[in-house]
Amino acid sequence: MGEEKRGQETVRLYTRQNDKTLYQLKRDGRIINQRIYVQLHFGDIAPLFMESYDWFTKKASAMVAKPDDVHAPIWCSISRENCLKPIPGTVVYVLDVPKEQVIYFDDEKWDYVLNRIYLPKDMEDREAYRRHLKEIGVDNGFEFFQGRYKGMYPEEERRIRESWNRVFEIDRWSVFNVCGNIWEIRQEWVQRIVHPGEDVI
């Protein structure tokens, strides 16, 4: 997956982006994701999801420094086979990114963060957490942040937030669950731009 390039180890990543980013790349020599783009993508449900994205941005920026003008992550596939294919209005950037610029995370675990629920360490922890909820008289772990339990269990909110850190722990490395986060796409990282109707190679 990695290769030597000008003495620097890189990893091959793939990311589908709006084709308007082509102008940004030509103008600025780089592409960055704006928070408003994420909000527009999610529409009416954006306020809920933005809290999760803001959490991710804060945690990831502590792992790899985030440029000051960047306010949202750029997510990439680690494989050609599993990357989103270009559709009208989009392009896929094939990138060779310096290894130290990439933050890997588990996309399957990300669903827990997005839904704002507890992310168990393993099956045993999952069962223990279910028992815990039953003991405290809670029958729905989805409603601590939005719903009937909001504000009633600050300790549970803290426990859930801490569990989300596991999104950066890769227990099973596969092209289907592992994604790479980067803060920007630099011109010199772009190896190929794939347009709709073209194969990602």
TrEMBL record:
InterPro entries: DUF3841. This is DUF3841 domain-containing protein. It comes from Mordavella massiliensis.
